[in-house]
Amino acid sequence: MRIKITACLLLAMTLAAGGCGTAEPPADDPSGRGGSLTILRAADIDGWDPDKAIQLATFQTLPQVMEGLVRPSLDGASIQPGLAEKWTLDARAKTITFTLRKGLTFSDGTPLTSKDAAFSVGLWRKGLSMGTLYGAITGTATPDDRTLVIKMKKASTFTLAWLGNGSSIVVPKDFGGKSRADFFTKPVGAGPFVVSSYQPGQRLVLERNSRYHDPARPYLDRLVYDVVADPNQQLLRYQSRQADAIEAVPLDLAAQIPEEERVLVHPSATIHGIFVNATKAPGDDIHFRRAVSLAIDRARYAQAVFGGLAAPATGGLPPRVQGSVGCGCTYETGIDKAKAELAKSSYRPGTKVELVVDATTPFSTRAGETAAAQLRAIGIDVDLQKLEVQVLVDRQAKGAYHLSLGEVGSVSPTVGDIFGLIVATGGLYSGLPMKTIEDAFDRLEVARTDEERGAAVRVAETWIHDNLPYIPTAFPDRLFAVSPKVKGLKVTPFLSYPADLLQAG
Amino acid sequence: MTLLAVDELRVSVRRRGTELTVLDGVSFAVGAGQCLGIVGESGCGKSLTLRATMGLLPPGATRTGGDIRVGRSGLAMVFQDSHASLDPTMRVGTFLADVVRRRRGGTRAAARRQAAELLAAVGVPDPDLRLRAYPHELSGGTRQRVSIALALATDPRVLLCDEPTTALDVTLQAEILRLLDTARAERGLGVVLVSHDVAVIRQVADVVAVMYAGQIVEAGPAADVLDRPQHPYTRALIGAVPSLDGPVGPFRPIPGAPPDPAVYTPACRFLPRCGHGDAACRGPVPGVHALDLRHRSSCVQHSTHHKERT
Amino acid sequence: MSAGRLRFVAARLVQVLPVLTALLLIVVLLQQLMPGDPARVMAGPRATVEQVAQVRRDLGLDQPIFLQFWAYLTNLAEGDLGRSNRTGIPISAIVGDRAGATLWLMAGGLIVSTALAAPAALLMALRPRSVAARICARSLTILVNCPPFWIGLMLASVLALRTGWLPVGGFGETFGERLRSMVLPSLTIGLAAMPLLARSAAGSLRQVLAADHVTTARSLGITGWPLVRRHLLRNAMPPAVTLLSVQAAALLFGAVVVEQTFGLPGLGAELVSAAGQRDFPVVQALTLIFGCGIILINLLADLSVALLDPRTTWR
Amino acid sequence: MTAVTFFRARFRARRGGGRVRWVAVTLLALVILAAIFAPVLSPDDPARQTLDQLRPPSADHPLGTDALGRDVLSRMLYALRTDLLLMVFAAGLPMLAGTVIGALAGYHGGSLDAAVRWVADIFQALPVYVLLIAFVFVLGPGTPSLLVAFGTLGWIVYARLIRTEVRRVRERDYVSASYLLGLSHTTVLVRHVLPNSLRQSLVYLTTDMGLALQGIAVLSFFGLGVEAGTPELGAMVAEAQVLLRSHWWLAAFPGLMIIVIGSSVAALADRFNEDGEAG
After folding, report:
1. How far is it, in rounded angstroms, from Cα D260 to Cα D268?
2. Residue A472 DSSP label
3. A2, A41, A48, A54: which to substitute to probe chain C, counting the most C Cβ within 10 Å?
4. pLDDT digit string (tens) for C56-79?
5. Which of C23, C24, C136, C141 to mutate against chain D (most D CBs within 10 Å)?
6. Touching check for B67 and chain D: CB below 8 Å?
7. Shortest CA distance to A361 belongs to which of C278, D235, D129?
8. Strand, helix or coil for residue C158
9. What is the pLDDT of residue A68?
10. Fewest CB atoms within 10 Å of the CB: A445, B38, C67, C291?
């Protein structure tokens, strides 16, 4: 199985924010420098080694310290300069040529040259876990200290987009003489912040990098991330102003955040759906899968499970990112039709169908109960099982399940991100052949125009709609709680926010 | 001179939420230099009588009636199991000196000296060494002597002894009994000695009260009661004890078991095991008081026999 | 110390060995027992089968179990607890970082629960029929049935949030901050642990109260406070120490919940998150530390009980 | 104290104790009846989901509705069934196992006793949470795993209790006396030793029942616990935990019910306690 792109699989629904900052200058007066903010997140970063990034928090935080060549723009539609001030994609030569900013230094004062960038590209490519995501890259060249040429086997626009992702970070050549493990316990980069102190699982304190290439940013002197897993504790800290913001408040608690302190991402670039094991009965029968899809009343589901803080799913790929063109088809609902489809399928009433859900949040259990109730209404004998999240992942990977409930969120500004995950996981653990999606992605990867992109995505959407490797049910919202003290928080649909633009009012 | 008089003592115990009267109308008195022996089978209420007299009923048991008159002087008690009745965490001397000081005041050193004297008085050899010992480091006999010394440290007028020799072997038993006898003679103590062992009672008691099922069934001077028992229970009790002095007869345990307090009645409680009973035994039987030196029993049969004979 | 006591201590120490061995074995077996493949967790959702296999090789999980056990033992013998699979941080550093909060919490919990339980136990044992004792007993019954996270949440949202006197959670940096931040968690864990402690302590006091030697003391005219101090407490001490040691073990469990509720960066919270992430080196090390802690506490309790009791010689 | 005041004090005390116990018995009886007649008493199907979510108590829904719009009263009534059974088994099975093991170990002593003590030591030296996780994970969340987990971890206390008691009682005179009379081991154990030891266990059992309910609540707090969808008090409390401050009734009533059940059972135990004191 060839893997091209990534996304963050958020089965635990442990949502934190992801993405990167942007270089757009703030519209308002930039004099508001100084101050400190404390932000709460439910899960800590996976450490500083980009190859180990799984949590969204990691993709969000790594570039704050170790900036990449480019970063995505705030609306996610384009690529913005990072360490590189400009770049050109030569489709014929299959190269991207980056020109680094003048006078770049790492936070320890060492100059940053194209050698460091080339070393970093090598690092990404060799990554055990992420390496294949850079599969199009075949090599680098460094004609001078400020020029980096990335050679590819095809003119991949996706690779360029992916270089703006949180795992594409620039580190000193040969880790500045340290071992990889040592370097990543005390990382040095050229991002807007430096690590002041880091206690894994507890607290990360970032401080302004005085050597950052943009003298105006970051605005904050200090940015503290406190890891607090318990939602009540999060809310108490926030209400007592021991913290200024919460990244991704559990939607249960939405009612307890005053209206004016909510930053709502409606909907986020996340698909919530029922994953189907299509390698064994009854999921191997398309009629059964259609029956399941028809059984889910998506509007009702969004209301019941998310309290209305979600949009009913209208396609199989996440909305509001580059290339989200929708399906051009509809996901219908209807008990009678569903029963008719079920009758056509090989499913015999009375046969137990396992629906496995993550046990660790009341929220996912509740989603399971709602889905189970709707499936039972058409005559599927659902056996709802709560599983600890890693057990669930294990069973999905091994195909030891019938149905499961999950969420997949985009971490990058392009819908192609999810393509990669779908391919890598065999259609989110359906076991169906992913040839069509793979081909569609090959077209998407080299697409130069929105039309070409739209055409490629629509092929995939249509195939998902017709074959239902998974059944999309909702596009959930994400909610940030933000106290009046915090200024300049702008959250993208894929949940990144530029931390260097935050201000403490 | 009467030092202690117990009148119509009643004690109940709560079991499964109901009150059971386990001691009923127990009366006895003891004078200076006198030894009252209370004898009976296990569970007849002998120990409970002593504890009630002392005011040390176990939790769950309460005195529900009766009167206890003690002269100006106090009571002290010697317990059966000297192993359990001495605080295991305290050196003998500390405990003894504590008691002495509590009673007589004075300095620690003085109390300690008196403690040593007391130990010497009860026949503990090398008292200074023993004062530093923990109870478990002493032999059974020495421990019981310590118990007696503790009791004597409070300068009591009446000593209540609950089976003081049961845990000891025969030689030690005799020694302890002699010690009690000496203490009685020298200090003019009244002694109430409880035992299930008729031989022990015979050895030291002037007056004997026989208890059965929470009542005194026969009382009188020791010689009268033990040699000319009136109550069939007393006869059985004596018969059940192999005597070294008397003719070697067969060992005859009393058949049956004492009744449970739940089925106590005003009728003769020994009737089911007696064998001589008739209708009269099913009516109320007279209570027996060990207040004076008259020999009497609660057996209605005996009184009728007696009348017939005279 | 007499030869007999030395022998006792030695014997008790020898008894620890098989327990320790079994603990080690279980610690290593944990990985086998807990479902959820650590290699897959580490490799991430997009990893291929080959990549997962590679991670498994890197972690040494493809080795036979006895080799893993041996490797673990030899590392342990060198004082090396290993590194976290996830962050690569040496576990000794993690433990050093996290132990503080847990130790504070346990100390606070022990102090609060003892301070609350001791008077309650004395009251219930010495004046069992008094109105106060009855009220006390009933309140304990109710308290023992309150879920601990409830107590914590109530304390935090009512006491701390309303008044602002105390932090609602977190650990703080300075000694003063830590002291303040420990008040509510200690109170929570103390309140949760106290009813059982009070009840068992009252029970053992009652047992001592009914003991023959206390009757003897009372027959000798020793009553009131001198009786309590000289005879009751002294004899109730060994069971109380044993109780406290059991309590300390229970506190460790409570600590997991309370650390979670108050967002304290303790070992319990770390164990929960490491278990959730299948970070087995951390899970193993923490299990081992907790286990050894409990073994040590039990050992100390047994030894001090033995030393408190002059009768101890052999067994 | 004169006889009269003595009697009064005693009378008061007895009436006081009796009243509490009477209340406890009544409450418990009501709870059991409510569980038995749950289908009749419930105003609604406990599983029926509506979009009337998180409503406060009203005439239609006396205890309000939960996050899925289900009637909380109905769920609570059905939860009683789950919980009473769970309580009895989660506390009863360990007691049964512990009693048997402890009695055998205490009575026979020797290597059996040593082995039991060893196993108990090991179990006590392990962080319970890890074991619970391991158990519940291996077996998957759900009632059977709960019972196995509680059973495996809970027997130790009883075994220790019974073992100590058996050893103590065994050394008392009357057991040796019964020996002399030629009674068999089992007879002695069953007739003389166990009744004495069991009383203490029963006291512990009643506490344990309350604790079992709480244990399940705590497991639910970590996402383990009974099967999804099954109404269960601890799970109801744990699920409503995040909403405690905005929708207090969701956690309050099931929580109160846990306290009522636990306290009532414990109040029953006082009876054994008092008898214990008397005997």
Report:
1. 12
2. E
3. A54
4. 888 888 888 888 888 888 888 888
5. C141
6. no
7. D235
8. helix
9. 95
10. C67
pLDDT in tens, A348-398: 998 999 999 988 777 888 899 999 999 999 999 999 988 888 888 888 888
Chain C CB within 8 Å of residue A201 CB:
yes
Amino acid (1-letter code) at residue A225: Y
Pairing of strands A270-276, A470-476: antiparallel
Q: Across-strand partners of B37?
A: B193, B208
Q: D45, D48, D49, D52: best mutation site toward chain A, by most A Cβ within 10 Å?
A: D49
Provide the percentage of residues in chain C whose pLDDT is more than 90. 6
* CATH tag, C91-308: 1.10.3720.10
Cβ separation of C213 and B84 shorter than 8 Å?
yes
Residue of C nearest to D279 (CA): C210
What is the spatial distance between Cα B227 and Cα D164, in angstroms, rounded to a whole number? 47
D:218-237 residues touching chain B, CB 8 A cutoff: none
For residue B76, give the 3-state DSSP assignment.
Answer: strand
Q: What residues contact residue A179 under an 8 Å CB cut-off, 6+ apart?
A: none
The domain locations on chain B are: 1-74+156-310
Q: Which of A157, A10, A27 is nearest to A79 (CA)?
A: A157
Task: Please say whether the structural domain B1-74+156-310 has been given the CATH code 3.40.50.300.
Answer: yes
- Does the residue D258 lie in any domain? yes
Q: The complex's ipTM?
A: 0.77
pTM of the model: 0.80
Question: Which residue segment(s) compose the domain that D116 sits in?
Answer: 3-43+69-278
Min CA distance, C119 vs chain A (Å)?
33
> Which residues touch A154 (CB under 8 Å, ≥6 apart)?
A94, A136, A445, A446
Q: Which of D3, D6, D278 sits opposite B13 (nearest CB)?
A: D278
CATH number of D135's domain: 1.10.3720.10
Domain layout of chain C by residue ranges: 91-308
Using a CB–CB cutoff of 8 Å, tell me whether A373 touches chain D. yes
Q: Which domains does chain A have, with CATH numbers?
A: 36-227+483-504 (3.40.190.10), 270-477 (3.10.105.10)
Interface contact C272-D130, CB threshold 8 A: no
Q: Does A181 sit within 8 Å of C262, measured CB to CB?
A: no
Closest-CA distance, D221 to chain A, in angstroms, reads: 8
- Residue pLDDT tens, chain B, 310 long: 788 889 899 998 877 667 888 888 899 999 888 999 999 887 788 888 988 998 888 777 888 888 888 766 688 888 887 778 888 888 888 888 888 888 888 888 899 999 999 898 888 888 888 888 888 888 888 888 898 899 888 888 899 998 888 778 888 888 889 888 888 888 888 999 998 888 889 888 999 999 998 899 999 998 888 888 888 888 888 876 554 454 444 445 677 777 888 888 888 888 888 877 778 888 888 888 888 788 888 888 766 555 443 3
Within 8 A of C273 by CB-CB distance, chain A residues are: 201, 229
Please state the three-class secondary structure of C286-299 as a single string: HHHHHHHHHHHHHH
Closest to A220 (Cα-Cα) out of A482, A481, A27, A500 = A500
> Phi and psi dihedrals of C249, rounded to 5?
-65, -40
Instruction: Confirm or reject contact between D277 and chain B (CB < 8 A).
Output: yes
Look at A8 and D258; give whichever has higher pLDDT: D258
A267: cis peptide before it, omega within 30°?
yes
The answer, yes or no, to whether residue A19 has pLDDT greater than 50, is: no
Tell me the residues of chain C between 181 and 210 that have a Cβ less than 8 Å away from chain B. Answer: 206, 209-210
Whether chain D has a CB inside 8 Å of the CB on C29: the answer is: no
| Contact flag B15-D274 (C-beta cutoff 8 Å) | no
Residue contact C89–A397, C-beta within 8 A: no
Tokens of A216: 């105006």
